[in-house]
Amino acid sequence: MAFEVEIATVINGTPLRRRVSARQHLADFLRDELELTGTHLGCEHGVCGACSLLVDGEIVRSCLMLAAQVDGKRVDTVEGMSESGALAGLHAAFARRNAAQCGFCTPGMLLTAHELLAQGRPMSRTEIREFIGGNFCRCTGYEAIVDAIESVLEQSK
Ligand code: FES
Ligand code: FES
């Protein structure tokens, strides 16, 4: 039987206590046990950014983290961030600029863009591209995504 540990965490604002396999990745825990499938899995090697989410407010790659590591921490996924309205401006801008095509990269991209906005400073298009450079998108060529993020950044001035 797999070695299990008990964790107490807060997922999208809701406290949760659960026994988890010591070897289960955070992304798998969220998707398979909690049905939070907005966190996508692409490479599962920390490269593509599809699994990005927030742990204690910091963006992380949930394919590289174990569920056991969020014991005592807060996890915010794209579902919770969308429900709270934290991503409303970005959602609207992505829709307006057609920055989501197949949508596979979009949850991770939105959370990375949210992190970018939290820097609270102006950024050039080149800086925006660099900031989101760890999130791969196979569809858009990034132009529309940069347009969307830039427009929200402009509004927040
Ligand atoms: Fe985690 Fe690609 S699935 S970085
Ligand atoms: Fe398809 Fe980005 S919209 S991978």
Keywords:
about 160 residues, alpha+beta, Ubiquitin-like (UB roll), DNA polymerase, domain 1, 5 strands, binds FE2/S2 (inorganic) cluster
Summarize, please.
The chain has 157 residues and is α+β, with helices and mostly antiparallel strands. It has helices at residues 26-33, 78-83, 88-96, 106-118, 125-131, 143-155; strands spanning 4-11, 14-21, 52-55, 58-61, 74-76. It is elongated, with a radius of gyration of 16 Å.
3D structure, described in words:
The protein is of the alpha+beta class and 157 residues long. It has 2 domains: 4-81, Beta-grasp domain (Ubiquitin-like (UB roll), Roll), CATH 3.10.20; 87-155, [2Fe-2S]-binding domain (DNA polymerase, domain 1, Orthogonal Bundle). The protein has helices spanning 26-33, 78-83, 88-96, 106-118, 125-131, 143-155, and strands spanning 4-11, 14-21, 52-55, 58-61, 74-76. Strands 2-1-5-3-4 form a 5-stranded mixed sheet. β3 (52-55) and β4 form a beta hairpin. The mean pLDDT is 97. One FE2/S2 (inorganic) cluster (FES) is lined by residues 41-44, 46-51, 61, 63.
> Major sheet, described briefly?
5 strands, mixed
Helix content: 25-40%
Question: In total, how many domains does the architecture comprise?
Answer: 2
Structure classification: alpha+beta
Strand fraction equals 15-25%
The tally of helices reads 6
Summarize the SSE layout with pairings:
Elements: E1 4-11, E2 14-21, H1 26-33, E3 52-55, E4 58-61, E5 74-76, H2 78-83, H3 88-96, H4 106-118, H5 125-131, H6 143-155
Parallel strand pairs: 1-5
Antiparallel strand pairs: 1-2, 3-4, 3-5
Helix pairs in contact: 3-6
One FE2/S2 (inorganic) cluster (FES) binds at residues 100-106, 137-140.
